[in-house]
Amino acid sequence: MTPRNSLNKDGPPSIYVVSGGVGSSARQIAESTLAQFATARVPIIVRKNVKEVGQLEEVVLAAASGGGTVLHTLVDDRLRAALTRLGRVHKVPTIDLMGPLLRQVGKITGEKPLGEPGRYRNRRKEYFDRADAIDFTVSHDDGARVEDLQEADIVILGVSRCGKTPLCMYLAVHGWKVANVPIVNGIPVPEEIFQLERRRVIGLLIDYNRLLGNRRQRDNRMGRLGASSYSDPSAVFDEIEAVRKIYRKGRFHVIDVTDKPIEITADEIVTYVTEGRGKLQYRAVPY
């Protein structure tokens, strides 16, 4: 098996996080630790859903090739023992975050640990679903990471200042992974948009006068004096027309958000996206 090189040529070797689940706990501990070092830039590589010794061997070989460290939260006794052994053989430091505490709790309760990864996350599934949705939505705001659009539950299209971001965040806190892509006249829309399932793509429209007012307010807040292409009446009109053409090309569902509360727009989107799928409700319980 060919190891993956963990050597960071521009800084310290990597920390490998190994987990039978998603690895969020160990990653958070690693990031909290690194925050105590002002200039250190240590890569964190997560290996999640580790169930077999062969997966551990791959991680240890990768760490060994570049002087890396393995940090783990394995709850399976067999895998913990295997990782400790592999670490000794390949001279890779392995830090066990779960074993000592599992043994101590077992002593004071007289119970044997179940050794089932993911139990804590499953108990708090709604919380973690919401957290994942918010993280996804923030990292896919304003056209970022369009290569990941297939992973989004909902993709929102629209011109600047039509309210895409607050709408997306509202949906995210209710458990939906949302990406938004701005449409700018003269700049091609990413082709990935037209490869998505149409039901997941929503185009926003807004009244011309309302949009023009929003743009002018933005210019004022930014300290821009006089007219700009951003708030030029003719340019704004052309932008709205260009948006309509894109929506027609993709045959996307369109929602007019003019003077409409975010809650109402979100309800319309969820109803449309889930229509006929038996999920006419938000995925997670609201705060």
Commentary on this structure:
Helix 2 runs parallel beside helix 3 (77-90) and helix 7 (164-172) crosses helix 10. This protein folds into two domains: 15-122, 3-Layer(aba) Sandwich (Rossmann fold); 125-274, Rossmann fold, CATH 3.40.50. It contains ten helices and eight strands. It has 287 residues and is an alpha/beta fold. Strand 1 (15-18), helix 1 and strand 2 (44-47) form a beta-alpha-beta unit. The strands form two sheets. The chain has a four-stranded parallel beta sheet, with helices on both faces. Strands 6-5-7-8 form a four-stranded parallel beta sheet, sandwiched between helices. The two termini are 48 Å apart.
Features:
single chain; alpha/beta; 12% strand; Rossmann fold; four-stranded parallel beta sheet; disordered C terminus; 2 domains; 287 residues
Low-confidence stretches: 1-8, 278-287
State the CATH architecture of the largest domain: 3-Layer(aba) Sandwich
Beta-strand residue fraction: 5-15%
Tertiary shape: elongated
Could you name the CATH topology of the largest domain? Answer: Rossmann fold
- In angstroms, what separates the terminal alpha carbons? 48 Å
Q: Structural class, from secondary structure content?
A: alpha/beta
Strand order of the largest sheet: 2-1-3-4
Radius of gyration, CA atoms, in whole angstroms: 25 Å
Order of helices and strands: EHEHEHEHHHEHEEHHEH
